[in-house]
Amino acid sequence: MPELPETETMARDLDRFVSGTRIDTMTVTRPDVLREVSKAVFRKRVIGATIVRCWRRAKLVVLDLSTGDRIAVQPRFTGALLIDSGQLAESQRRYSTLAFTLSDGRKLHYRDVRRLGTVSLMSPARWEEYSGALGIEPLDPTFDSAYLSGLVRGSRQAIKKLIMDQRQLVGVGNIYANEALWDARIDPSRTAEKLKPAEIATLRDAIVEVLNRAVEARGTSIRDYVDSTGERGGFGPHLSAYGREGLPCERCRARLIGTHAIDGRATVLCARCQS
């Protein structure tokens, strides 16, 4: 967390609210979140640059700068990019690790309570190398059932682990893997290569549908996730599997079960519906 819907929400907000502004100054209070460059080099390459575009790649929020550099933010568990026009609550600013002062007087904070997220500055060549090692975007039209079939073919991994592998398919984390597999009625522990063509097609559609619905709801707030204005996501009440261990299945009313057997991550499923 955050996964694709949450980082997509952050990126869209930032593109709307800060694209076209210049970075006049910056303050780094916790340099341990920086990657690829030192604090001094980061300041030198960022101050004076204009934010041209904000977008998402995988679970990253990407800020394209007028210099050609890209700031890539990976929020992980407790990271958030918050726009401060002078009204941001002190509780939201308390864990700011770095802040950009923009040309219109506002600030853009990267807040991270546990400091497990990262902020990288990459040249165009370095970005191409980094991005090229990531998998396909699930909301890209080229991600169809044939593509997913190619991923599962010959894979002996559990299907849940495979669709969470960012080298294969980006943006899907534990929340939406649980949801998509519940929607598709597939046991998360099933060996990927044993899925039938019809199941693969159903799973592909379930992945795309649940991600799109979560983007519409501006993400899921389980604990720390907030959007760029500090508001929580609205998809939580629509979860059918994740976080519902012990509750009735919404389809068959059997009790949902929980396990950590797949890669040590919390998995929730209906033993009756998912096979």
List the helices and strands and how they pair.
Elements: H1 4-17, E1 23-28, E2 34-35, H2 39-46, E3 51-57, E4 60-65, E5 70-74, E6 79-84, H3 90-93, E7 96-102, E8 107-112, E9 118-122, H4 124-132, H5 145-152, H6 159-163, H7 174-184, H8 197-216, E10 257-259, E11 267-269
Parallel strand pairs: 2-9
Antiparallel strand pairs: 1-7, 3-4, 4-5, 5-9, 6-8, 7-8, 10-11
Question: What do these coordinates show?
Answer:
By secondary structure, this protein is α+β, with helices and mostly antiparallel strands. It has two domains: 4-132, Alpha-Beta Barrel (N-terminal domain of MutM-like DNA repair proteins); 145-269, Helicase, Ruva Protein, domain 3 (Orthogonal Bundle), CATH 1.10.8. Helices cover 29% and strands 20% of the residues. The chain has eight helices and eleven strands. It has helices at residues 4-17, 39-46, 90-93, 124-132, 145-152, 159-163, 174-184, 197-216; strands spanning 23-28, 34-35, 51-57, 60-65, 70-74, 79-84, 96-102, 107-112, 118-122, 257-259, 267-269. The strands form three sheets. The chain has a five-stranded mixed beta sheet. Strand 10 (257-259) and strand 11 form a beta hairpin. Helix 1 runs parallel beside helix 8 (197-216), helix 5 (145-152) packs across helix 8 and helix 7 (174-184) packs across helix 8 (197-216). The longest helix has 20 residues, at 197-216. The model has no long low-confidence stretch (mean pLDDT 95).
